[in-house]
Design goal:
With 451 residues, the chain is of the alpha/beta class. The chain has nine helices and 23 strands. It binds flavin-adenine dinucleotide (FAD).
Length: 451
Amino acid sequence: MTDAILVIGGGIAGINCAMNAAKYGVQVYLVDDTASIGGMMARLDKTFPTNDCSICIEAPQMYEVANQAKIKILTQTEVRRVQKADGVFKVRLVKKAKFIDEEKCTGCGACVEACPVSLPDELDGKVGGKRKLISMAFPQAVPNVVSLDSRCRSGQMRGAGACVGGCAVDCSQCRECPIAYCVKACEKEGKKAVMLWQANQNIDLDVKSIVVATGIKNAPPAGDLLGYDRFANVITNTEFERLMNAGGPTAGHIIRPSDRQPARRIAWVQCAGRGLGQGRGTPYCSKVCCMIATKQTIIAKEHDPSVATTVFYNDLKAYGKGFWDFYRNAVGHGVRFVRARPYAVSEDPETHNLGVRCEDLDTGSLRSHDVDLLVLSTGLIPSERNARLAKTLKLALDPLGFFKEKDPLLSPLETGVDGIYLCGGATGPIDIAESVSQATAAAMKALCFQT
Ligand SMILES: Cc1cc2nc3c(=O)[nH]c(=O)nc-3n(C[C@H](O)[C@H](O)[C@H](O)COP(=O)(O)OP(=O)(O)OC[C@H]3O[C@@H](n4cnc5c(N)ncnc54)[C@H](O)[C@@H]3O)c2cc1C
């Protein structure tokens, strides 16, 4: 028998679940399939409704889990197989190679500096962030080690300039690469942490219960939603979050992508795409977007009070504690909230300014609004990895792709499989405070579970 618990997903929900369970002395495995724990919160600037710096409040928790003797963090790790036998879950994990010796890497960054090849950072999207072929997920990453793009092996990035070239050995026959810039830079620091020959590793665990905390992601704008595909200055709210983040690609300068000049007139479109059909918007309310936009307007105003900020909304969701005051705070900063539904966007080809055509929802009249930057609040959707994980865990998903609770009213956070629980964005769109409460409850359920 074992008391151990597996937590799948290392966002703020998974972190809190692991910390709560470990305080009761049980062994906890915290697994994330990306290079660092932290989840979405690690990429945010400030957090509603307090406007605390997101990473400043999450990083101490990330370090606490990393230093808690009873928690083993496994990043870039997937849950491959789960079988119930003799009252325990027998779990096969696959730890994907980072091509780095995590014990030897000190996160000094010499290899990153030396790497000459940059790729677009997926999350930064249009606002232009880049990452190197060898990179740290973000400066506060836990574990604080780099990982290497798997394409760097066997000379695949040689053409892009990842090595000095001139090697006598045929790349396809060689698993090491002593001439890669990152390898050389690491050696110069007196370490040999870059391991191009590193293989994936299978890890087998016995656990008594499992908590799924696989989170959410921002819905991508589909079908050229309000000109997103055509116009550089139409961005998503996640891209705006990266723009205003001091640790983001513009060091916190709110510029517009077309000419990198400060955005002076910014508008947000709430429920972007909803009601348009053809899969162009989430068919449900994501609950947090109104407060995300409210936060972003306040921060934009704090950066520069002369910036004009307008929120086009349908129904304002200010459902949580302190949320209405937060909205009033934005109004006090001079933010305009307009009940209107934007339906078309045009661009001036010379200035790249945008014309937003909307229907006023109070009067029914049509009007036009000129802006420099348009931010689409597209809503939250489940992790695309949920389907595979649900199959592995024999769990059901709801029609939206979130994990299905046994009974949302009387058995929330429980699933159709005894001993497997849910928390945070795995259950549906959610904010941080609710994710943390659910994580605490799921930890207790996982601790108390008896076969
Ligand atoms: C633009 C934006 C701004 C926001 N601003 C705020 C705010 O100001 N205040 C607020 O309260 N909320 C805000 N939110 C919501 C907030 O991000 C979520 O409430 C929070 O991230 C949910 O935490 P989580 O741990 O459940 O999920 P996530 O943060 O999504 O973390 C999930 C983790 O699970 C991992 N994972 C996923 N699938 C698997 C798998 N199959 N195997 C292993 N690991 C997996 C992921 O890599 C990730 O690390 C915002 C969201 C967005 C998009």
